[in-house]
Write a structure and sequence with these properties.
single chain; 9 strands; four-stranded antiparallel beta sheet; 18% strand; three-stranded antiparallel beta sheet; 236 residues; alpha+beta; C8orf32 fold
């Protein structure tokens, strides 16, 4: 009995030692975070635990916000429309004489303003938290895409354009890429940056879904898998 008790004490001491070592490593390890101001990137050092806590905080805030935005919306089209409308209402264009701050999506939401790609970032991230894969691409203008009821729909958040047919059904993004004149017809007389809308669609080339969705990098499990894969690739 004395030997068993001694082994248990030794195991408990070893476990406490490992736990203490893990806490010390987390507290002492360093990490970096990036912030761009007027498209000039800067890197800031911070403790790893602070970065991890901030990451989890942003994740929870995104999830809670999406729950509020989509409350009562049961279908995918209803949810994506609600997020589109919320983004248009709450993320206004950054005034021309204000600095463009590029950091975390939650900070854009808190500030309440952003440039075109930041609006798309907010929309696609919240859409992903609502359960729909989403991403954005920039050609002449910034287009967002979300997989709604099995096919990819296209959006222009900054210009407030939903690409739907006469019945309000989302059009297939791949079809719009093959026939950009349809996007031109929906956009009407709008000509962002002085170019016909059809030109902006054509700048993107063929429709292609990225292998890694940027919006998923805000979620703990997909981010962990991504970082592990990147570490394995670097170790080869």
């Amino acid at each position: 009995m004395a030997r068993r008790g001694g082994r248990r004490v030794a195991a408990a001491v070893a476990a406490l030692g490992l736990a203490a070592g893990g806490v010390w490593l987390l507290a002492s390890a360093k990490a970096t975070t990036r912030q761009g101001i007027n498209f000039q990137p800067a890197v800031r050092s911070l403790p790893l635990y602070a970065k991890a806590v901030a990451f989890l905080h942003r994740h929870l805030e995104h999830a809670l916000l999406v729950r509020e935005i989509t409350a009562g919306r049961r279908t995918e089209p209803e949810r994506v429309r609600a997020i589109f409308a919320w983004t248009r209402e709450h993320i206004r264009p950054t005034p021309k004489d204000w600095p463009v701050v590029d950091d975390h999506i939650l900070h854009i939401i808190i500030r309440g303003h952003g440039v075109d790609d930041q609006m798309a970032d907010v929309f696609t991230t919240l859409t992903r938290y609502a359960g729909l894969p989403a991403f954005w691409r920039q050609g002449g203008v910034v287009f967002s895409f979300a997989r709604v009821e099995g096919r990819w729909a296209m959006f222009d958040v900054a210009n407030g354009i939903l690409f739907t047919d006469e019945a309000g059904q989302f059009l297939d993004a791949e079809e719009l890429f093959r026939h950009p004149e349809r996007a031109q017809a929906i956009a009407g007389l709008r000509a962002p940056r002085g170019r016909p809308y059809r030109w902006h669609v054509e700048q993107l080339g063929a429709f292609q879904v990225p292998e890694v969705l940027r919006a998923e990098q805000q979620m703990p499990w997909p981010r962990l898998v991504f970082e592990l894969r990147r570490a394995l690739m670097a170790a080869r």
